Amino acid sequence: MQLYQRDAIEAAVKLDRDALTTVEAGFAALGRGEVVQPPILSMAIEESNGEVDVKTAHIRGFERFAIKVSPGFFDNPKLGLPSLNGLMMVFSAKTGLVDAVLFDEGYLTAVRTALAGAIAAKHLSREDSRRVAVLGAGEQAELQVRALQLIRDVDTLDVWARRREQAEAYAERMQDQGFTVRVHDSVKAACAEADIVVTTTPARQPILTAQDLPEGVHVTAMGSDSPEKRELDESVMTRADAFVCDTRAQSEHNGELKAYAGGEPPFKVYELGRVIADEQRLRVSPSSITVCDLTGTGVQDTAIANYALSRLGL
């Protein structure tokens, strides 16, 4: 069994096209029915304002499968500690023996989450998309944009966050990376000229409505990953010409489809893996509006863990 620390993992795995291709192949395998993926195991630790999620999947033909443990303790910054952490245990798919433990501190999760957003945009956004509205100003607000650069010529960002000082700090960081960035005081203003909208918040009430969407926009919503969170008003989903999620079951429990709990949504639901595997073209015109809800899947974790080990020489 090999043990790898974050420094080595971060040196081996970058936010690049090879990593994107690996995660995209995982989604395609899911769409073809070649993945065993149980439901997420979630546990709340309310007295510490914490939660723990466990995700796993086996991709048929892969040498290894991963089990990821991802704790989030949201009062940690008051103690000078990061709020997110985690590790991946990687097992042989032939013997069940542990091949490696990746003490990545959540790094691989951050990478595969950003790549999933880029993969969604690759299949759903206009090819000439250059301007991105980012709702939120945290780690994923940066990584999602960097991942989008792998598939689109993004050069202009519009940012909104609940706290303007955080949006301004984000704008400064992204300007240093060469982007033109504008900070806005409202979601509507931030989205007015967007080709792509990315929501990266822990919102518990919807922040984006259909009135905020310009024609032809693609929306990637990745903040709603638990039953308590929501970023999209129902009008966004009903306005869309195509609604896609990573898995329907997870979207209904953790993601945006829980808005329709107990009933059938008034639109067709597509899954991203099937869209990729079947080469579905859901954007029928330049004015089409597309939405993708990403809750994070075990197949992404197994895909990125196998990729990491291949880069680490195992």
UniProtKB/TrEMBL annotation:
UniProt-listed InterPro entries: NAD(P)-bd_dom_sf, ODC_Mu_crystall, ODC_N
Source organism superkingdom: Bacteria
GO cellular component: cytoplasm
Protein name: Ornithine cyclodeaminase
Organism: Modicisalibacter xianhensis
